[in-house]
Amino acid sequence: MKALRATLFATVICLALLAGTFLYNIFYSTPGAGALPAEVRIEQGDSFATVARKLRAQNIISNAIFFSLWARVVGSDKKIHQGLYRFTDEVSPREVLERLVTGKGIFQIVTIPEGLTVREIAELLEKMQIANKEKILAAASDPALLATVGLQGKGIEGYLFPNTYHFVPGTPERDILLTMAEQFRKSVQPLLAQNVTEMTPHEVVTLASIIEKETGVESERPLVSAVFHNRLRHQMPLQSDPTVIYGLKEFNGNLTRKDLNDPSPYNTYRVAALPPGPICNPSLSSIRAALYPAYVPYLYFVSKNDGTHLFSETIEAHNHAVRIYQPVREPAARSRSVNHH
Fold it and tell me: In sequence order, what DSSP letters do the residues of 287-335 get, joined into one string?
């Protein structure tokens, strides 16, 4: 009799310990900080056992068996939503299951390429059904939002960092812009803090945006930067086609002599200074080039029609290069433009 009681007692203790372990695992255990952030994609047709294995493989849960058992106990194993989930904070298996059931944590990935304008970013986000274009543009000009990120009177153009972002469907347009602006602050401010030029941080970002638009070749950016630094130093117009295009209300793809006479403050053929603000959202590489131009005397460059440019110190050498690489351009235009495409 005593042996039976001892056996029953031992069984009860084991069951209690097992239940305690189970409940602790479900309600309190979390993945180690080193396991996050983590992503998992739930595909259509995945069994719950498959889902549990995926979560365990990414260290989002610590025990796939306990997790599957809990899902069956609460009747949630047939209710999860497919999609791509991102876990950035430590959560218990119970909350993991809740996210799968409610769809919370499903996110969309969007890569913002370097050199896009705010309008182009808005169009991309709308195309991917992440945000409404008009709401993005309205938020971008909201004084309250600009004040939040310290851009009063400047506008947000140039301060949205090109990067890959993860947004949960329904994220407010304002929050999307704040996320990109905050990424700019984290990524760029340490570089701007080392500013050794005579330019203000806003002028550096403005120049970087022009460099971004003028060349996509990494090694050329310090050279392009040098041309513009030298021109500013000599109080020469930058004569940058992309700035003119940015200032036009409408552009059909063909830059005309009329466009070059447009009175826009972004027309750097008429104004011998930087435009009032950035013309796109530049890469870190272009910002670095704006801060650290190459030590060369160049004042001109012309497209070689292969994505690269030929740089010249004198107008004579530049015009000779133009005749070689841009023979169809009018002589009057050739002598004025710093860059031809």
Answer: HHHHHS--S----EEEE-SSS-EEEESSHHHHHHHHHHH-TTS-HHHHH
pLDDT score of 43: 82
Q: Where are the domains of the chain?
A: 27-102, 108-184, 201-336
Residue range 62-113, pLDDT digits in tens: 888 878 887 888 888 888 887 778 887 778 888 888 888 887 777 788 999 9
All residues at 6 or more sequence positions from 327 whose CB lies less than 8 Å from its CB, including other chains = none
With vertex at residue 236, the alpha carbon angle to CA 235 and CA 240, rounded to the nearest 5 degrees, is 130
Structure tokens at 316: 């004579």
Q: What digits encode the pLDDT tens for the residues 185-239? A: 999 999 998 888 889 999 999 999 999 999 999 999 999 999 999 999 999 999 9
d(CA 5, CA 8): 5
Q: List Cβ neighbours of 325 (8 Å cut-off, separation of 6 or more).
A: 302, 303, 304, 305, 310, 340
- Distance, in Å, from the CA atom of 247 to the CA atom of 232, rounded to the nearest integer, reads 20
Phi-psi category of residue 99: left, alpha or beta, with phi > 0 → left and psi -120 to 50 → alpha: alpha
CB atoms within 10 A of CB 43: 11
Query: Would the pTM count as exceeding 0.70?
Result: yes
Does 133 have pLDDT greater than 90?
yes
User: What stretches of the chain show up as alpha helix (H) in DSSP?
Assistant: 2-27, 48-57, 64-73, 93-102, 118-127, 133-140, 143-148, 173-192, 201-214, 221-233, 241-247, 257-260, 284-291, 315-325, 331-336
> Of the CATH numbers 3.90.660.20, 3.40.640.10, 3.40.50.150, 3.30.1490.480, which one belongs to the domain with range 27-102?
3.30.1490.480
Q: Do residues 38 and 87 make contact, with C-beta atoms less than 8 angstroms apart?
A: yes
Q: Which two tokens stand for residue 258?
A: 């009329």
- 226-260 as b/e: b if 16+ CB within 10 A: bbbbbbbeeeebbbbbbbbbbbeeeeeeebeeebb
Using one digit for the tens of pLDDT, what is the confidence trace for 276-324? 999 999 999 999 999 999 999 999 999 998 889 999 999 999 999 999 9
